[in-house]
Amino acid sequence: MTQAPKSISASTPKSGENSWLWLLKLVTGPFIIIFMLVHFIVNHAIASSGLLNYSDILTYYTIWVVPVMEIIFLGLVVSHSLLGLRSIIIDLHPSRGVLAVISWLFLIIGVSAFVYGTWLITVIVSLRVTL
Amino acid sequence: MNLNRNQPSPGKLLQWFNPLGRKLSFSGFTLNRVSALGLTLYLYLHLIVLSLLAQGPNAYDNFLKLIHNPWFMFGEWLVVAAGLIHGLNGLRIALTSLGIVVPQQKQMFVFLMVIAVIGSLIFAIRMYTTF
Questions:
Q1: How many domains does chain B have?
Q2: Which of A5, B23, B26, B98 has its CA 20 to 30 A from that of B45?
Q3: Full domain range(s) for residue B103
Q4: pTM of the predicted structure, to 2 decimals
Q5: What is d(CA B77, CA B68) in angstroms, rounded to the nearest whole number?
Q6: What's the Cα-to-Cα distance from B62 to each of A45, A53, A98, B58, B67, rounded to whole Å?
Q7: Average pLDDT over residues A42-63
Q8: Which range is least confidently modeled, A23-32, A38-47, B5-14, B94-103?
Q9: Touching check for B118 and chain A: CB below 8 Å?
């Protein structure tokens, strides 16, 4: 019995890539585009001098939805970037041991980046109160 | 048919950047990979730099003065362009991965990259006119 030819037109999980992680990377992408466009427009199109200064950022964070949006954006972009980087590394055919070390390293980096970023956002929110 | 064409080994890493004899789909693959690596590097540098916000207005605004030059602005614009290219090309990958518009993906790639170029030019004009 001949096997149906595998389609090379569409992206699919690679050997060694968990299907759920592949799907997570795929699903986070469109949401990141929306948050990224907001981020780019606010920081590079609306900002009077091309970049938001300290006072501009604190004022921007007085909009209640901004901290929530930024935390969600942070979580999405950190997970998407590290899953994507892991996917590139899988293309280089590492051994299972090396891939396991990289996976744990990326998990630690991802969680650390998210915790650190969330802490930074809460600091900015607390500063805006004293603005 | 070579199913491993999009899975370069470490020794063939430089082949990602060789456009000779490649199909349009390979350009999409290379653009996706190169922009992903650049954006990931920028993301973590960006998170580190933003720690200056926790140090107060002097630390952050002095940093903004330090980087207020056309070269850095060009770097910021590259991030915006890479974000648009990676985001829109990624949207094509997500759609085709779900089996949507697979036969028209080349036309969609060209269409989305034209949008990315137009968007990048709009941001370039905006960023340099407010500089």
A1: 1
A2: B26
A3: 23-129
A4: 0.84
A5: 13
A6: 21, 10, 42, 6, 9
A7: 87
A8: B5-14
A9: no
ipTM of the predicted structure? 0.85
B11 token code pair: 């020794």
Q: What is the CATH number of the domain that holds B66?
A: 1.20.1300.10
Among all residues of chain A, which has the CA nearest to that of B59?
Answer: A54
Contact B88, B112 (CB under 8 A): yes
pLDDT confidence tier of residue A3, bands split at 50, 70 and 90: very low
| Identity of the residue in B44, B54, B131 whose CB atom sits nearest the CB atom of A113 | B44
Q: Establish if B11 belongs to a structural domain.
A: no
For residue A119, the distance in angstroms to the closest alpha carbon of chain B comes to 10
Cross-chain residue pair A12–B93, CB shorter than 8 Å: no
Domain membership of residue B8 (yes or no) is no
Q: How much is the pLDDT for B102?
A: 85
